[in-house]
Amino acid sequence: xxxxxxxxxxxxxxxxxxxxxxxxxxxxxxxxxxxxxxxxxxxxxxxxxxxxxxxxxxxxxxxxxxxxxxxxxxxxxxxxxxxxxxxxxxxxxxxxxxxxxxxxxxxxxxxxxxxxxxxxxxxxxxxxxxxxxxxxxxxxxxxxxxxxxxxxxxxxxxxxxxxxxxxxxxxxxxxxxxxxxxxxxxxxxxxxxxxxxxxxxxxxxxxxxxxxxxxxxxxxxxxxxxxxxxxxxxxxxxxxxxxxxxxxxxxxxxxxxxxxxxxxxxxxxxxxxxxxxxxxxxxxxxxxxxxxxxxxxxxxxxxxxxxxxxxxxxxxxxxxxxxxxxxxxxxxxxxxxxxxxxxxxxxxxxxxxxxxx
Length: 357
Ligand code: NAD
Ligand code: TDX
Hints:
Layout: E1 10-14, H1 19-31, E2 36-41, E3 61-65, H2 71-80, E4 85-88, H3 95-100, H4 103-124, E5 131-137, H5 162-181, E6 185-190, E7 193-194, H6 203-213, E8 217-220, E9 226-228, E10 230-231, H7 232-245, E11 251-254, E12 259-261, H8 262-276, E13 289-292, H9 307-313, H10 321-334, H11 336-339, H12 345-355
Parallel strand pairs: 1-2, 1-4, 2-3, 4-5, 5-6, 6-11, 7-10, 8-13
Antiparallel strand pairs: 9-12
């Protein structure tokens, strides 16, 4: 289908001021400028309007600050904006914060998703066609042993953290709304993303920023845990594919075929920073690596089998981990004015709780 033949969509993007949601909003506005895009975001510590800078002047774009648990607000936005497509990213997303305080995860991830599904169920009666994309994670499948096959869409759920348990609950609700009410929900379970606008608390930005500041690089446990990394723009193109070509009621796993041990990833980042940054406080950066107490319940390995989305919908990633990490390091080097203000008192208090004062 060419862009000329395509029916314009009217999207509600929840969590569009966060990391993946803002990358998706930029991707979508660039690719489909004829579409209406409404971002609903509560601007928690992880949400940042600067992530959407440059979009706010567009006539087809609107930002609304609000909570996905606010049913009246969601109802009015769906009706007033005649939304036909919900792309649901809003969540509490950091495993370490879910260990410190699980309550917010249940509220936003479970109650918030339920609120959106209920609102869309009633609104859907007014539409000829629509889609509800629920963006989820590979963490719902639990942890793999070194030689286990990668997660497929039929791997049983076995979440191990309050974060992944709350995402699992929300996935089950999205699935149930298709089977019970024929609501056209689609679920994607994606591996670890990285790229621009990634909040400093997560592994890759945390390491980039600590290298630039000459601070210790805290690697949990023995550093042998494995994650399957996907460049965020590739995730956005997968979501585009699922919205346009996915079958309602189906789940699609999304991954980059890039399994890397944490310690190897941190060493790659150190090498890139040593090569690309002119004035590092400490060289070589690897000398900053410090093994610290392990994360409680730390999943050993994640790996995604993305055969279904490749064979049924024709999607595959386009960026290798080497290219993606290079672009990402470049972005953190050239966007210090983006990340420095995020190292707030609240962030320092969080950092002290997880890593010690
Ligand atoms: P993020 O933490 O960077 O952003 C979350 C956004 O949601 C923020 O802008 C925040 O303000 C907003 N938000 C939080 N609570 C809200 C509420 N009650 N109402 C409205 N907005 C609220 O998260 P992310 O890394 O961009 O993840 C986005 C989604 O993708 C999540 O659902 C996450 O589970 C999923 N996911 C993330 C990854 C990853 O590697 N980051 C991988 C797979 C899936
Ligand atoms: O300081 C650190 N040291 C460390 O060794 C941090 C922050 C992390 N780690 C380890 C823990 C993980 O094995 O690095 C790995 C990646 O950690 P995170 O960036 O916190 O990601 P993870 O826990 O794997 O979850 C991420 O991917 C799946 C996202 O945060 C989730 O939202 C997504 O669902």
